[in-house]
Specification:
Blueprint (H helix, E strand, L loop, with lengths): L20 E6 L11 H13 L4 E8 L10 E2 L4 E5 L2 E11 L6 E6 L1 H4 L15 H19 L5 E5 L5 H7 L11 E6 L7 E2 L20 E2 L2 E3 H8 L2 E4 L2 H6 L10 H6 L4 E3 L27 H13 L10 E8 L5 H11 L5 E8 L1 H13 L4 E4 L4 H10 L2 E4 L9 H7 L3 E5 L2 H6 L13 E3 L4 H17 L1 H12 L5 H20 L5
Parallel strand pairs: 1-2, 1-7, 2-6, 7-8, 8-12, 12-13, 14-15, 14-17, 15-16, 17-18, 18-19
Antiparallel strand pairs: 3-5, 4-5, 5-6, 9-11, 10-11
The protein binds adenosine-5'-diphosphate.
């Protein structure tokens, strides 16, 4: 090299790092912080699975009493959320979803959220729920402005967040947030956010939005209806439920709107927490097992029979039930079929809480059929695991089931589901085929005691007469993939489709 002459530096092309898609996930509950149902599990798991797909997803929810406030960092200053009565000055706290780097923002407003329940005491909502969740919906958008985080997609979940897509189209008109695509996910259409029409002013929207395309529905204000009109894309938690809710039988009055938007409505099955529900590592089980070594399952069965005070017999089929005792789950139909089912050589264990009538009935059945039926009327997560581990069959006679988790846990634990053919149960369980030993469970269509009993009878006769088929089905069931990774890929595609729809061009 000649001294003093600098060689020409090579041209450097930096590796192409695509900008992440920015997603705000708005939710009224999120596991493990605040949970009443399946939505909390989705909110706690899906964002984590989206992060590795180059999605900058952030979660926003209210800060309820009982959440670990002190583990969250308080952001400087206050955020002002426009409310009908003025500006609500809200603190924001930020943390991370456990074992992840997904930011979780908590909106702190004690007047609305420092209460013993998320939505109100059992079977009744707080009288100011419209105001409380107007605050969440409006607050989520104000948070974006305060952070300078302008999402490409805002993912809203159930009625508590249904006003977000309406605000994006109205009060944010021609503002940066107006460019965001909105996804509205239905986790359970039984809850729609119905309020007196006279309260429209509480939403901050003009009276003109109380019309039969947006907020007005059969003479009342229906927040879900407005979200169905304004959202870029709609989703729900299984493909079958997506079809069912377009019918009068399952649409809860919104089937007309949903079928009008059927081209924009997709069903994506929820995943399950495959660490928490893994028979090979489950800390709640007395013995571990997997598809290659099922000896542990026999030990779990014996332990469950003992725990239930039933005869410890490997030869008798054990049916497990875990769930809320509400009309949705169809246990009233089981009640009518129970005497016939228990006249066979079977055992059944039930874990659940819910309607007083149902609890009374199952307590009575426990007392009268104590040698083969046990009912535990409480909430007990460890026992739920032990039932999945120890039972041979798992019963879900649901009236409707948007997705359902228990049947997926059951499949993973080699506990063959006996289910009604509805919603996510159809999409996750394959009906038994006697000719080929095909399938992963047993299914019936009619919600009728006779159909239920006959199908349980079919499972029982398969157990006694074709045990090799049961083994084959078990192994097949245990090999199914219900991970959140699979669901996250489907949501990413949904987000990209929504973006393109909103902006008229693909995300780059
Ligand atoms: P849903 O969300 O409609 O109640 P899912 O099947 O989707 O029904 O999920 C129910 C969840 O709640 C499962 O994780 C189930 O194990 C749990 N669960 C319901 N009732 C009880 C109970 N009494 N004890 C323990 N876990 C329960």
């Amino acid at each position: 090299m000649i001294e003093g002459v600098r060689p020409t530096p090579p041209v450097v092309t930096p590796p192409f790092v695509p900008a992440p898609l920015k997603v705000l996930f708005v939710t009224s509950e999120c596991a493990p912080f605040a949970k009443t149902g399946g939505l909390a599990d989705v909110a706690g798991a899906l964002p984590k699975a989206l992060r590795p797909l180059n999605i900058d997803v952030r979660v926003v929810m209210p800060l309820y009493a009982g959440m670990p406030w002190n583990d969250l960092e308080v952001l400087d200053g206050f955020m002002t959320v426009p409310m009908y009565w003025g500006g609500a000055r809200s603190r924001v706290r930020v943390g991370k979803l456990p074992h992840s780097d997904v930011p979780l923002y908590g909106l702190e407003y004690n007047r609305y959220f420092d209460r013993p329940y998320l939505y109100g005491p059992p079977a009744e909502g707080y009288s100011d729920n419209l105001e409380r969740f107007t605050f969440l919906s409006r607050g989520a958008l104000e948070l974006c402005k305060a952070l300078g985080f302008f999402p490409d997609v805002i993912h809203c979940n159930d009625w508590q967040t249904a006003l977000v897509p309406v605000y994006v189209d109205t009060v944010e008109w021609m503002q940066p947030l107006h460019a965001a695509a909105t996804i509205y996910s239905i986790h359970n259409l039984a809850y729609q956010g119905v309020f007196d029409g006279g309260g429209t002013f509480i939403t901050g929207l003009g009276k003109e939005h109380y019309n039969d395309r947006e907020l007005e529905h059969f003479g009342a204000m229906n927040l879900t209806k407005a979200a169905l009109y304004h959202s870029t894309i709609l989703s729900t938690v299984s493909p079958t439920y997506a079809r069912e809710i377009q019918t009068g039988a399952y649409g809860n009055g919104l089937d007309g709107v949903l079928s009008w938007r059927k081209g924009d409505l997709v069903g994506i099955l929820n995943g399950i927490d495959t660490d928490e529900w893994n028979p090979a590592t489950d800390k709640h089980l007395p013995a571990k097992f997997d598809a290659h070594d099922m000896a542990g399952k026999a030990a779990c069965k014996a332990a469950l029979q003992k725990e239930a005070g039933l005869a410890v017999r490997p030869d008798v089929p054990v049916f497990g039930i875990v769930g809320r005792l509400t009309p949705q789950k169809g246990f009233d139909v089981l009640a009518h079929a129970l005497a016939r089912i228990l006249s066979w050589d079977v055992q059944m264990v039930l874990l659940g809480t819910g309607d007083a009538d149902a609890e009374r009935f199952f307590a009575w059945a426990d007392a009268h059929h104590g040698d083969r039926f046990r009912a535990w009327l409480r909430f007990d997560n460890g026992r739920a695991h032990r039932i999945e581990g120890g039972a041979d069959f798992f019963l879900m006679p649901s009236r409707f089931e948007p997705c359902g988790l228990n049947q997926m846990y059951s499949l993973r634990y080699g506990t063959l589901p006996v289910v009604r053919a509805t919603g996510g149960l159809v999409d996750t369980v394959a009906n038994y085929d006697e000719a080929t030993a095909g399938g992963t469970g047993f299914m019936f269509e009619d919600l009728h005691p006779e159909s239920l009993a006959n199908t349980i009878g079919w499972a029982v006769s398969t157990w006694y007469d074709r045990p090799a088929h049961i083994e084959t089905m078990r192994r097949r069931a245990m090999a199914q993939d219900f991970s959140w990774e699979r669901a996250a890929v489907a949501y990413r595609d949904l987000y990209l489709g929504a973006y393109e729809r909103r902006r008229g061009q693909a995300f780059k």
